[in-house]
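Students often ask why we bother encoding 3D structure as a string. The short answer is that it lets us treat folding as translation between two languages. Here is a chain of 111 residues written in the first language.
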Amino acid sequence: MDPAIGNALRRVHKAAKLLGWLRRLGLKRRIVGVNIDPWDSFQAITMPCLLLHGALSDVLTGDIVNRMQSAKPQLEVVEVPDRGHAPLLDEPLARAAIDAFLGRLIEGKES
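And here it is in the second language, the structure alphabet:
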């Protein structure tokens, strides 16, 4: 976990705004083969996904989680209380969610 992630994200905000502006104008969607719009990348994921959302995150807000769920209704979301952006994965709720998610994947492959 990087406690300075918020500062790092704020520094790249200007560059991200410029890239977003270029994308909206239709001038740039990819740079060296990489999507510059994170929503394009997110929507391209075809496998089952589990999102462990730290309830106190100032990076992954509730609005973003809702938008993710709207884009991918099958997305499994578990909010981990009293955690920031990156839950430590030692929380009982997080561990139970991971175990259940992986268990469902294994069951699906065996049937």
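Translate back mentally: Residues 92-110 form the longest helix (19 residues). Keep this in mind for the problem set.
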